Description:
Elements: H1 4-12, H2 26-36, H3 47-68, E1 70-72, E2 79-86, E3 89-92, E4 95-98, H4 104-113, H5 115-119, E5 130-137, H6 155-166, E6 178-180
Parallel strand pairs: 2-6
Antiparallel strand pairs: 1-2, 2-5, 3-4
Helix pairs in contact: 3-6
Amino acid sequence: METYKDFRVKTINKERHFKVKNSWGVYDYYKYYRKNRPKDKKFILTEKQFYAFFRRVNQLLAEEFVRTQHLEFPNRMGELEMLQKKLRSFFVDGKLKTNRPVDWDATLKLWYEDKEACDSKLLVRRDAPINPRIRYSKATAIYVNRAFYEFVPNRFLMQKAIKNFSNQLLCFNDSEIKNLYDG
């Protein structure tokens, strides 16, 4: 009989394929820097120095966002903000609808203990009253073609900020928190 740990690894670690199209990453920025770097030798960075600089700036931005739950980018390039969405369950045409996220730890534990629930793909939902989200707001941005630009925070930043928000390590006024409702 397999253990819960083996079941969890087997269920979660399936092969995933992700395609990122029309996106610039750190290496693309380094290629651009290499092509257009300054002529003065004291400003030339190696690839290792460039990545270390990029990592440090991103780390400082992430720490500031986690601490304050709000971050304005320089040169009016938009802002990151923490929103909360009210979670609820409701009936539409006699069917139960919900916008609550799945609690995957509890779901996997249920699937391990009950084979019938696993076969029917029964999901366990979180019972928290709100669901915090990170949103990139372009309302204050002044660059052209705003529809083509996007900022997607990485998974580590989202988890850290949401955990900080959920544990209520910071004190917020009601006016500081923006509610995101359906619609």
